[in-house]
Design goal:
351 residues, mainly alpha, single chain, elongated
């Protein structure tokens, strides 16, 4: 005999469903402010290790946090004026000379019988050189107005930028400010778990940033010095590309070597291209056998594949702020999923 199943919708369940939909809609309407708050929490969490280090040495928290903000501001300003703006100018010059490079590479390849005659024939025609060059020039012009206006542009407006700085500073100057903030917005029965989850995730984020930044800077400096000594054009742009590609596991060094070999082949022929390829091979071997074991393997944080996916998804969903908070959110999700897996295994053993 068939069993009849009946479903009933109570007033309480209907009210809860409407409340969930209303909250979701409200969050959608204020998603920009939510991004600002999450970014402020991430920045305050990044400042926390320095504040704890200062506290252990009897340095008051407010001057310590303030010195961190001032130091970071000066460093970013120096990078902005002495690295980022010259990098944009170099990128614009590189885009303008790409057609000439492609023609040179095509003629050299035909002469040396390395490639088929029409390999690069249509490269210049299909490349929007004028549009790309105009974009880089306009970007450099808008950013050269000043670091404050540029930061406001990157962070989605002056108000968002100011709110991020003020909120992050307010959370950082308080002793364990991020944990107190989480306790305010999280239900009481979940406070302990959420705070512990964030602290574990914060450690992973710190380790990931230490490893990736240190590795990228070392590779960037080595590539820049090597290309400058050899005499390859656009050494700064190619070195920054090498540092950025370090975040890609396995294929990063290969991808970063391709444009450098291309430029070297176009400007100096086969001999210079072979020297540049040898330079990248030496740097890669040096990285694999010395830098990577000393830096990355001792600071295991977020896996490279997860960080790449998080950065791509965050950038697509919320632009620069999405990229900024993507890896911390990925670290939190990894820790949460690990907790769920451990709980499942514990329940299985008990059963």
């Amino acid at each position: 005999m068939e069993e009849k199943h009946s479903f009933s919708i109570t007033t309480g369940s209907l009210v809860r469903a409407v409340a969930v939909v209303a909250i979701a809609y409200a969050l959608f309407l204020v998603h920009s402010f939510v991004l600002v708050v999450i970014t402020a929490v991430v920045i305050a969490s990044a400042v926390e290790p320095a504040a704890r280090w200062a506290g252990a040495r009897k340095i008051p928290r407010v001057p310590a946090v303030l010195s961190v903000y001032v130091s970071v501001t000066l460093i970013l300003a120096g990078l902005f004026y002495f690295l980022f703006l010259p990098l944009l100018s170099d990128a614009s010059a590189f885009i303008r000379t790409l057609p000439a490079y492609s023609e040179t590479v095509n003629s050299e390849a035909i002469t040396t019988s390395i490639l088929e005659p029409n390999t690069f024939q249509n490269f210049s025609a299909n490349l929007p050189v004028a549009e790309l060059s105009s974009y880089f020039n306009s970007l450099a012009s808008s950013l050269s107005q000043g670091i404050f206006s540029s930061a406001s542009l990157v962070f989605g407006g002056v108000l968002s930028f100011v709110l991020i700085i003020v909120l992050s500073f307010y959370l950082a100057v308080q002793d364990d400010g991020v944990s107190k903030f989480l306790r305010i917005i999280v239900p009481a029965r979940k406070e302990q778990y959420v705070v512990g989850l964030w602290k574990r995730s914060q450690q992973k984020i710190g380790l990931w940033m230490q490893g990736q930044l240190l590795l990228a800077v070392i590779v960037m400096v080595l590539v820049y010095l090597g290309l400058m000594l050899i005499g390859v054009p656009h050494a700064l742009l190619l070195a920054v590309l090498a540092g950025v590609f370090e975040i890609i596991p396995l294929f990063g060094p290969i991808l970063s070597a391709i444009p450098s070999v291309f430029v070297a082949f176009a400007s100096g022929g086969t001999s210079l291209a072979l020297i540049v390829a040898g330079l990248y091979l030496i740097i890669q071997q040096f990285e694999n056998h010395l830098i990577y074991p000393l830096v990355v393997k001792k600071v295991v944080g977020v896996p490279p594949t997860v960080s790449i996916l998080a950065l791509v998804v965050g950038g697509q969903l919320a632009g620069f702020l999405g990229m900024l908070i993507s890896v911390p959110i990925a670290a939190v999700l990894m820790e949460f999923l690990s907790d769920v897996e451990r709980e499942k295994m514990a329940q299985a053993k008990e059963a």
